[in-house]
Amino acid sequence: FDVVVVGGGLVGACVAAGLKQHRLTASLNVALIDAAQLQGPSSSSLPSKVSLPPEPPLRVSTVTPASRALLTAVGAWDILLNLQNDNTSSVAPFHAMKVWDANNASINYTSQDAFQAGAIPTPDEPMAHVVENDALQQAMLQVATNRGVHALWPRKLTSLTLPKHDVPRSNEPAQLTLLDESTGKSETISTSLVVAADGQRSRTRQLAKLRYEGGPYRDQVGAVFTLALDEPIDTAYQKFLPTGPLALLPVRAALPSGAPRANVVWSTTAAHAAELCSLDGDALAAATNGALEGGPAPRAIEAVGVARSFPLSMSMAPRMTAPRLVLAGDAARAVHPLAGQGANLGFADARAAVETIASCARSGLDLGDGASWQRYGDLRLAEGMAWSASLELIRRAYASEALSGARFMGVSVMDQVSPVKSLLVRVASGVSGAYGGALDDDEWGTAPMSRK
Protein backbone atom coordinates (compact mmCIF):
# COMPACT_ATOMS: atom_id res chain seq x y z
CA PHE A 1 0.00 0.00 0.00
CA ASP A 2 1.04 3.61 -0.49
CA VAL A 3 -0.65 4.74 2.74
CA VAL A 4 -2.09 2.74 5.62
CA VAL A 5 -4.38 4.60 8.02
CA VAL A 6 -4.80 2.90 11.40
CA GLY A 7 -8.07 3.85 13.11
CA GLY A 8 -11.44 4.26 11.43
CA GLY A 9 -12.79 6.98 13.74
CA LEU A 10 -13.49 10.56 12.72
CA VAL A 11 -9.89 11.53 12.00
CA GLY A 12 -8.73 8.31 10.37
CA ALA A 13 -11.82 8.14 8.16
CA CYS A 14 -11.28 11.79 7.20
CA VAL A 15 -7.67 11.11 6.17
CA ALA A 16 -8.70 8.10 4.08
CA ALA A 17 -11.59 9.93 2.39
CA GLY A 18 -9.46 13.04 1.89
CA LEU A 19 -6.71 11.09 0.14
CA LYS A 20 -9.25 9.80 -2.36
CA GLN A 21 -10.69 13.29 -2.93
CA HIS A 22 -7.46 15.27 -3.40
CA ARG A 23 -6.40 15.40 -7.05
CA LEU A 24 -2.74 14.59 -6.31
CA THR A 25 -3.45 11.59 -4.08
CA ALA A 26 -6.65 10.08 -5.53
CA SER A 27 -4.75 7.32 -7.35
CA LEU A 28 -2.84 6.14 -4.27
CA ASN A 29 -3.41 2.66 -2.90
CA VAL A 30 -4.87 3.35 0.57
CA ALA A 31 -5.89 0.95 3.33
CA LEU A 32 -7.96 1.76 6.40
CA ILE A 33 -7.54 -0.53 9.43
CA ASP A 34 -9.62 -0.77 12.58
CA ALA A 35 -9.72 -3.30 15.39
CA ALA A 36 -13.51 -3.04 15.63
CA GLN A 37 -16.18 -4.20 13.21
CA LEU A 38 -17.14 -0.77 11.92
CA GLN A 39 -20.69 -0.11 10.79
CA GLY A 40 -21.17 -1.63 7.39
CA PRO A 41 -19.55 -4.70 5.84
CA SER A 42 -15.77 -5.09 5.90
CA SER A 43 -15.55 -4.90 2.12
CA SER A 44 -15.11 -2.17 -0.46
CA SER A 45 -18.47 -0.55 0.22
CA LEU A 46 -20.81 0.47 3.00
CA PRO A 47 -24.59 0.87 2.89
CA SER A 48 -25.61 3.45 0.28
CA LYS A 49 -27.58 5.32 2.92
CA VAL A 50 -26.24 6.26 6.33
CA SER A 51 -28.72 5.49 9.11
CA LEU A 52 -29.92 7.96 11.73
CA PRO A 53 -31.19 6.60 15.07
CA PRO A 54 -34.49 7.85 16.53
CA GLU A 55 -32.72 9.69 19.37
CA PRO A 56 -29.42 11.57 19.13
CA PRO A 57 -26.46 9.57 20.48
CA LEU A 58 -24.35 10.93 23.32
CA ARG A 59 -21.16 11.37 21.28
CA VAL A 60 -21.25 14.63 19.33
CA SER A 61 -18.68 17.13 18.05
CA THR A 62 -18.73 20.87 17.52
CA VAL A 63 -17.59 21.47 13.94
CA THR A 64 -15.99 24.84 13.18
CA PRO A 65 -16.17 26.64 9.80
CA ALA A 66 -12.64 25.45 8.95
CA SER A 67 -13.55 21.83 9.70
CA ARG A 68 -16.83 22.16 7.81
CA ALA A 69 -14.93 23.35 4.72
CA LEU A 70 -12.72 20.26 4.92
CA LEU A 71 -15.70 17.91 5.38
CA THR A 72 -17.38 19.57 2.40
CA ALA A 73 -14.28 19.03 0.28
CA VAL A 74 -14.03 15.42 1.41
CA GLY A 75 -17.65 14.82 0.39
CA ALA A 76 -19.10 13.93 3.78
CA TRP A 77 -20.94 17.15 4.58
CA ASP A 78 -23.58 16.83 1.85
CA ILE A 79 -24.31 13.28 3.02
CA LEU A 80 -24.92 14.61 6.53
CA LEU A 81 -27.17 17.43 5.33
CA ASN A 82 -29.30 14.97 3.36
CA LEU A 83 -29.50 12.53 6.26
CA GLN A 84 -32.82 12.97 8.04
CA ASN A 85 -35.17 10.98 10.24
CA ASP A 86 -38.69 12.32 10.80
CA ASN A 87 -37.60 15.69 9.38
CA THR A 88 -34.76 16.14 11.83
CA SER A 89 -31.08 16.21 10.95
CA SER A 90 -27.87 14.93 12.54
CA VAL A 91 -26.42 18.42 11.94
CA ALA A 92 -27.53 21.21 14.29
CA PRO A 93 -26.33 24.75 13.50
CA PHE A 94 -25.94 27.48 16.08
CA HIS A 95 -25.61 31.21 15.54
CA ALA A 96 -24.57 32.35 19.02
CA MET A 97 -22.57 31.23 22.02
CA LYS A 98 -23.19 32.42 25.56
CA VAL A 99 -20.59 31.78 28.27
CA TRP A 100 -20.93 32.84 31.91
CA ASP A 101 -19.97 31.86 35.44
CA ALA A 102 -21.56 31.83 38.89
CA ASN A 103 -20.63 35.51 39.37
CA ASN A 104 -22.29 36.51 36.08
CA ALA A 105 -19.02 37.31 34.30
CA SER A 106 -20.16 36.65 30.74
CA ILE A 107 -19.07 36.81 27.13
CA ASN A 108 -21.31 36.38 24.10
CA TYR A 109 -20.38 35.53 20.53
CA THR A 110 -22.68 35.68 17.52
CA SER A 111 -22.49 34.92 13.81
CA GLN A 112 -22.13 38.68 13.29
CA ASP A 113 -18.93 38.56 15.37
CA ALA A 114 -17.69 35.60 13.33
CA PHE A 115 -18.46 37.44 10.08
CA GLN A 116 -16.65 40.57 11.21
CA ALA A 117 -13.66 38.43 12.18
CA GLY A 118 -13.58 36.87 8.71
CA ALA A 119 -14.44 33.39 10.00
CA ILE A 120 -17.63 32.98 7.92
CA PRO A 121 -18.60 34.53 4.56
CA THR A 122 -21.94 36.11 5.58
CA PRO A 123 -23.46 37.18 8.93
CA ASP A 124 -26.39 34.78 8.51
CA GLU A 125 -24.08 31.74 8.40
CA PRO A 126 -23.98 29.48 11.47
CA MET A 127 -20.87 30.09 13.54
CA ALA A 128 -20.54 26.33 14.05
CA HIS A 129 -22.50 23.08 13.94
CA VAL A 130 -23.02 20.25 16.41
CA VAL A 131 -22.72 16.94 14.56
CA GLU A 132 -23.51 13.42 15.74
CA ASN A 133 -20.25 11.46 15.66
CA ASP A 134 -21.71 8.16 14.49
CA ALA A 135 -23.40 9.74 11.47
CA LEU A 136 -20.28 11.71 10.54
CA GLN A 137 -18.08 8.63 10.84
CA GLN A 138 -20.46 6.59 8.68
CA ALA A 139 -20.57 9.34 6.06
CA MET A 140 -16.77 9.51 5.79
CA LEU A 141 -16.40 5.73 5.74
CA GLN A 142 -18.98 5.58 2.96
CA VAL A 143 -17.03 8.16 0.94
CA ALA A 144 -13.69 6.45 1.58
CA THR A 145 -14.73 2.91 0.69
CA ASN A 146 -16.87 3.91 -2.28
CA ARG A 147 -13.81 5.68 -3.71
CA GLY A 148 -11.59 2.65 -3.43
CA VAL A 149 -10.05 2.68 0.05
CA HIS A 150 -9.37 -0.90 1.16
CA ALA A 151 -11.40 -1.53 4.32
CA LEU A 152 -9.51 -3.90 6.62
CA TRP A 153 -11.63 -4.52 9.70
CA PRO A 154 -11.87 -6.01 12.18
CA ARG A 155 -8.07 -6.33 12.25
CA LYS A 156 -5.90 -6.03 15.35
CA LEU A 157 -2.43 -4.56 14.87
CA THR A 158 -0.09 -7.06 16.54
CA SER A 159 3.32 -5.84 15.36
CA LEU A 160 4.86 -2.88 13.61
CA THR A 161 8.29 -2.70 12.01
CA LEU A 162 9.62 0.72 11.03
CA PRO A 163 12.93 1.58 9.35
CA LYS A 164 15.70 2.68 11.69
CA HIS A 165 16.24 5.90 9.76
CA ASP A 166 14.07 8.50 8.04
CA VAL A 167 13.73 8.70 4.29
CA PRO A 168 15.97 9.28 2.35
CA ARG A 169 18.57 7.59 4.59
CA SER A 170 16.44 4.45 4.46
CA ASN A 171 14.17 3.26 1.67
CA GLU A 172 12.74 0.33 3.60
CA PRO A 173 8.93 0.23 3.91
CA ALA A 174 6.96 0.02 7.14
CA GLN A 175 5.47 -3.38 7.88
CA LEU A 176 2.33 -4.11 9.88
CA THR A 177 1.11 -7.50 11.03
CA LEU A 178 -2.66 -7.75 11.42
CA LEU A 179 -4.74 -10.39 13.18
CA ASP A 180 -8.31 -11.22 12.24
CA GLU A 181 -9.53 -12.38 15.64
CA SER A 182 -12.67 -13.92 14.14
CA THR A 183 -10.63 -16.38 12.07
CA GLY A 184 -7.30 -16.38 13.89
CA LYS A 185 -5.48 -15.61 10.65
CA SER A 186 -2.64 -13.09 10.45
CA GLU A 187 -1.29 -11.16 7.49
CA THR A 188 1.63 -8.76 7.04
CA ILE A 189 1.31 -5.69 4.83
CA SER A 190 3.87 -3.08 3.85
CA THR A 191 3.45 0.61 3.15
CA SER A 192 5.32 3.83 2.42
CA LEU A 193 3.50 5.65 5.23
CA VAL A 194 1.49 4.81 8.34
CA VAL A 195 -0.98 7.39 9.66
CA ALA A 196 -1.77 6.48 13.27
CA ALA A 197 -5.23 7.80 14.15
CA ASP A 198 -6.27 5.10 16.61
CA GLY A 199 -7.10 7.25 19.63
CA GLN A 200 -5.65 8.14 23.00
CA ARG A 201 -4.65 4.55 23.72
CA SER A 202 -3.05 4.21 20.30
CA ARG A 203 -1.59 0.75 19.81
CA THR A 204 0.33 2.08 16.82
CA ARG A 205 1.96 4.84 18.87
CA GLN A 206 2.93 2.33 21.55
CA LEU A 207 4.51 -0.05 19.03
CA ALA A 208 6.40 2.88 17.49
CA LYS A 209 7.72 3.71 21.00
CA LEU A 210 6.53 7.31 20.82
CA ARG A 211 5.86 8.81 24.26
CA TYR A 212 2.48 10.14 25.36
CA GLU A 213 2.84 12.51 28.29
CA GLY A 214 0.17 13.72 30.69
CA GLY A 215 -2.89 11.77 31.71
CA PRO A 216 -6.32 11.98 33.33
CA TYR A 217 -7.30 15.03 35.36
CA ARG A 218 -7.26 14.48 39.07
CA ASP A 219 -10.82 14.01 40.34
CA GLN A 220 -12.51 15.44 37.27
CA VAL A 221 -14.54 13.43 34.80
CA GLY A 222 -17.23 14.23 32.27
CA ALA A 223 -20.91 13.29 32.40
CA VAL A 224 -22.82 13.38 29.12
CA PHE A 225 -26.57 13.06 28.52
CA THR A 226 -29.44 14.22 26.32
CA LEU A 227 -32.18 16.60 27.41
CA ALA A 228 -35.60 17.46 26.02
CA LEU A 229 -36.03 21.26 26.17
CA ASP A 230 -39.03 23.51 26.48
CA GLU A 231 -38.02 25.51 23.39
CA PRO A 232 -35.78 25.13 20.31
CA ILE A 233 -32.31 26.63 20.50
CA ASP A 234 -29.74 27.80 17.97
CA THR A 235 -27.31 28.88 20.67
CA ALA A 236 -24.53 26.99 22.45
CA TYR A 237 -24.45 27.63 26.21
CA GLN A 238 -21.64 27.08 28.68
CA LYS A 239 -21.56 27.88 32.37
CA PHE A 240 -18.42 27.61 34.46
CA LEU A 241 -19.21 26.10 37.84
CA PRO A 242 -16.78 25.67 40.74
CA THR A 243 -16.45 21.97 39.86
CA GLY A 244 -16.03 22.54 36.11
CA PRO A 245 -17.86 23.75 32.98
CA LEU A 246 -21.34 22.64 31.92
CA ALA A 247 -22.07 22.88 28.19
CA LEU A 248 -25.53 22.65 26.64
CA LEU A 249 -25.54 22.21 22.85
CA PRO A 250 -28.35 21.89 20.28
CA VAL A 251 -28.52 18.46 18.60
CA ARG A 252 -31.97 17.84 17.14
CA ALA A 253 -34.34 20.69 16.27
CA ALA A 254 -37.47 18.57 16.52
CA LEU A 255 -38.47 14.98 17.06
CA PRO A 256 -41.83 13.16 16.82
CA SER A 257 -42.40 13.98 20.49
CA GLY A 258 -42.17 17.64 19.55
CA ALA A 259 -39.52 18.55 22.11
CA PRO A 260 -36.16 19.75 20.80
CA ARG A 261 -33.09 17.95 22.08
CA ALA A 262 -29.82 19.20 23.55
CA ASN A 263 -26.58 17.47 24.43
CA VAL A 264 -25.05 18.20 27.84
CA VAL A 265 -21.37 17.74 28.69
CA TRP A 266 -20.84 18.37 32.39
CA SER A 267 -17.25 18.36 33.68
CA THR A 268 -17.32 17.72 37.40
CA THR A 269 -15.93 15.64 40.24
CA ALA A 270 -15.95 11.86 40.03
CA ALA A 271 -18.43 11.63 42.91
CA HIS A 272 -20.83 14.13 41.35
CA ALA A 273 -20.58 12.46 37.94
CA ALA A 274 -21.49 9.13 39.57
CA GLU A 275 -24.49 10.80 41.21
CA LEU A 276 -25.63 12.28 37.89
CA CYS A 277 -25.36 8.86 36.24
CA SER A 278 -27.66 7.39 38.92
CA LEU A 279 -30.50 9.91 38.41
CA ASP A 280 -33.69 9.29 36.47
CA GLY A 281 -34.90 11.59 33.70
CA ASP A 282 -36.80 14.07 35.85
CA ALA A 283 -34.07 14.33 38.48
CA LEU A 284 -31.34 14.79 35.87
CA ALA A 285 -33.31 17.59 34.22
CA ALA A 286 -33.88 19.21 37.61
CA ALA A 287 -30.16 19.03 38.42
CA THR A 288 -29.31 20.72 35.14
CA ASN A 289 -31.95 23.42 35.59
CA GLY A 290 -30.61 24.09 39.07
CA ALA A 291 -27.03 24.41 37.85
CA LEU A 292 -28.06 26.80 35.04
CA GLU A 293 -30.57 28.79 37.11
CA GLY A 294 -30.40 32.54 36.58
CA GLY A 295 -28.63 32.22 33.23
CA PRO A 296 -29.85 32.56 29.63
CA ALA A 297 -30.25 28.83 28.89
CA PRO A 298 -33.72 27.34 28.31
CA ARG A 299 -35.22 24.92 30.81
CA ALA A 300 -35.02 21.17 30.48
CA ILE A 301 -38.25 19.16 30.54
CA GLU A 302 -36.66 15.78 31.10
CA ALA A 303 -33.57 13.75 30.34
CA VAL A 304 -33.80 11.26 27.48
CA GLY A 305 -32.07 8.09 28.57
CA VAL A 306 -29.38 8.09 31.24
CA ALA A 307 -26.11 9.93 31.80
CA ARG A 308 -22.79 8.29 31.06
CA SER A 309 -19.41 9.29 32.44
CA PHE A 310 -16.06 9.42 30.66
CA PRO A 311 -12.52 10.31 31.78
CA LEU A 312 -11.08 13.75 31.08
CA SER A 313 -7.42 14.04 30.28
CA MET A 314 -4.73 16.33 28.93
CA SER A 315 -2.03 14.38 27.14
CA MET A 316 0.35 14.94 24.26
CA ALA A 317 2.97 13.10 22.24
CA PRO A 318 6.04 15.38 22.34
CA ARG A 319 7.15 13.80 19.08
CA MET A 320 4.54 13.20 16.38
CA THR A 321 6.63 11.35 13.81
CA ALA A 322 8.86 8.30 13.42
CA PRO A 323 10.37 6.88 10.21
CA ARG A 324 7.40 6.30 7.86
CA LEU A 325 4.87 7.01 10.62
CA VAL A 326 2.88 10.06 11.75
CA LEU A 327 0.34 10.63 14.53
CA ALA A 328 -3.02 12.34 14.08
CA GLY A 329 -6.03 13.12 16.24
CA ASP A 330 -6.24 11.80 19.79
CA ALA A 331 -3.23 9.59 19.13
CA ALA A 332 -1.26 12.85 19.03
CA ARG A 333 -2.96 14.76 21.86
CA ALA A 334 -6.01 14.87 24.12
CA VAL A 335 -7.47 18.18 25.32
CA HIS A 336 -10.22 19.22 27.74
CA PRO A 337 -13.66 19.32 26.04
CA LEU A 338 -14.57 22.78 27.42
CA ALA A 339 -14.09 24.53 24.05
CA GLY A 340 -15.10 21.61 21.83
CA GLN A 341 -11.79 21.71 19.97
CA GLY A 342 -10.64 18.08 20.19
CA ALA A 343 -12.27 16.94 16.96
CA ASN A 344 -11.34 20.15 15.15
CA LEU A 345 -7.66 19.74 16.02
CA GLY A 346 -7.95 16.22 14.65
CA PHE A 347 -9.55 17.43 11.42
CA ALA A 348 -6.71 19.96 11.05
CA ASP A 349 -4.30 17.02 11.45
CA ALA A 350 -6.21 15.16 8.74
CA ARG A 351 -5.98 18.08 6.33
CA ALA A 352 -2.29 18.58 7.12
CA ALA A 353 -1.57 14.88 6.56
CA VAL A 354 -3.37 14.78 3.20
CA GLU A 355 -1.71 17.99 2.01
CA THR A 356 1.73 16.78 3.12
CA ILE A 357 1.24 13.55 1.18
CA ALA A 358 0.04 15.60 -1.81
CA SER A 359 3.12 17.84 -1.53
CA CYS A 360 5.39 14.78 -1.60
CA ALA A 361 3.54 13.45 -4.66
CA ARG A 362 3.76 16.84 -6.41
CA SER A 363 7.52 17.04 -5.83
CA GLY A 364 8.22 13.43 -6.71
CA LEU A 365 9.35 12.64 -3.17
CA ASP A 366 8.93 9.41 -1.28
CA LEU A 367 5.62 9.60 0.62
CA GLY A 368 7.55 8.99 3.83
CA ASP A 369 10.01 11.84 3.24
CA GLY A 370 11.46 12.66 6.65
CA ALA A 371 11.86 16.42 6.16
CA SER A 372 8.26 16.82 4.96
CA TRP A 373 6.89 14.98 7.97
CA GLN A 374 9.14 16.86 10.37
CA ARG A 375 7.46 20.09 9.21
CA TYR A 376 4.05 18.47 9.74
CA GLY A 377 5.04 17.38 13.24
CA ASP A 378 6.44 20.78 14.20
CA LEU A 379 3.33 22.67 13.06
CA ARG A 380 0.78 20.28 14.54
CA LEU A 381 2.67 19.98 17.82
CA ALA A 382 2.86 23.76 18.17
CA GLU A 383 -0.88 24.23 17.60
CA GLY A 384 -1.73 21.37 19.94
CA MET A 385 0.49 22.77 22.68
CA ALA A 386 -1.02 26.24 22.28
CA TRP A 387 -4.56 24.87 22.60
CA SER A 388 -3.69 22.64 25.55
CA ALA A 389 -2.09 25.53 27.43
CA SER A 390 -4.95 27.91 26.64
CA LEU A 391 -7.66 25.47 27.70
CA GLU A 392 -5.84 24.63 30.91
CA LEU A 393 -5.43 28.34 31.71
CA ILE A 394 -9.17 28.94 31.15
CA ARG A 395 -10.11 25.90 33.22
CA ARG A 396 -7.96 26.97 36.16
CA ALA A 397 -9.04 30.61 35.97
CA TYR A 398 -12.71 29.66 36.20
CA ALA A 399 -12.06 27.08 38.93
CA SER A 400 -10.40 29.65 41.21
CA GLU A 401 -12.74 31.73 43.37
CA ALA A 402 -9.80 33.96 44.31
CA LEU A 403 -9.58 35.10 40.68
CA SER A 404 -13.28 35.95 40.33
CA GLY A 405 -12.71 39.73 40.35
CA ALA A 406 -9.90 39.66 37.83
CA ARG A 407 -11.87 37.15 35.75
CA PHE A 408 -14.90 39.45 35.67
CA MET A 409 -12.76 42.35 34.41
CA GLY A 410 -10.94 40.20 31.87
CA VAL A 411 -14.11 38.70 30.45
CA SER A 412 -15.70 42.16 30.22
CA VAL A 413 -12.74 43.39 28.19
CA MET A 414 -12.92 40.39 25.85
CA ASP A 415 -16.65 40.90 25.37
CA GLN A 416 -16.44 44.62 24.63
CA VAL A 417 -13.12 45.20 22.83
CA SER A 418 -13.68 44.28 19.17
CA PRO A 419 -10.08 43.41 18.13
CA VAL A 420 -9.67 41.05 21.09
CA LYS A 421 -13.05 39.44 20.46
CA SER A 422 -12.34 39.06 16.74
CA LEU A 423 -9.04 37.33 17.46
CA LEU A 424 -10.74 34.90 19.84
CA VAL A 425 -13.45 34.16 17.29
CA ARG A 426 -10.91 33.51 14.53
CA VAL A 427 -8.93 31.15 16.71
CA ALA A 428 -12.03 29.29 17.92
CA SER A 429 -13.34 29.03 14.34
CA GLY A 430 -10.15 27.33 13.20
CA VAL A 431 -9.37 29.84 10.45
CA SER A 432 -6.23 31.31 12.02
CA GLY A 433 -4.09 28.16 12.31
CA ALA A 434 -1.48 26.90 9.87
CA TYR A 435 -4.17 24.78 8.17
CA GLY A 436 -7.09 27.15 8.67
CA GLY A 437 -6.88 28.93 5.30
CA ALA A 438 -9.09 28.29 2.30
CA LEU A 439 -8.73 24.95 0.57
CA ASP A 440 -7.30 24.97 -2.96
CA ASP A 441 -10.34 24.29 -5.16
CA ASP A 442 -8.22 23.02 -8.06
CA GLU A 443 -6.54 20.40 -5.89
CA TRP A 444 -9.40 19.45 -3.56
CA GLY A 445 -12.25 19.86 -6.05
CA THR A 446 -14.06 21.75 -3.30
CA ALA A 447 -17.79 22.28 -3.77
CA PRO A 448 -19.26 25.60 -2.61
CA MET A 449 -19.82 25.59 1.14
CA SER A 450 -23.39 24.73 2.05
CA ARG A 451 -25.41 27.57 3.53
CA LYS A 452 -27.46 25.33 5.80
What does this structure look like?
This protein is an alpha+beta fold and 452 residues long. 34% of the residues lie in helices and 28% in strands. The protein contains 13 helices and 22 strands. It has helices at 10-21, 65-74, 76-81, 111-116, 133-146, 203-207, 270-278, 281-292, 342-363, 370-399, 404-416, 418-429, 441-444; strands at residues 3-6, 30-33, 60-63, 84-85, 88-89, 91-94, 96-101, 106-110, 128-132, 150-152, 156-161, 174-180, 185-191, 193-196, 213-229, 235-241, 244-252, 261-268, 300-316, 321-322, 325-327, 333-334. The strands form 5 sheets. The chain has an 8-stranded mixed sheet, with helices on both faces. Strand 20 and strand 21 (325-327) form a beta hairpin. The relative contact order is 0.18.
Offer a few descriptive terms.
452 residues; alpha+beta; 6-stranded mixed sheet; 34% helix; globular
Unreliable spans: 40-47, 446-452
Number of E-type strands = 22
Rg over C-alpha atoms, rounded to the nearest angstrom:
22 Å
Helix content: 25-40%
The biggest beta sheet reads:
8 strands, mixed
User: Looking at the structure, what is the overall shape?
Assistant: globular
Number of H/I helices:
13
Distance between the termini: 38 Å
What is the SS-derived class? alpha+beta
Estimate the mean pLDDT confidence.
87
Q: What strand line-up does the widest sheet have?
A: 8-7-16-17-18-15-19-22
* Binned strand content: 25-35%
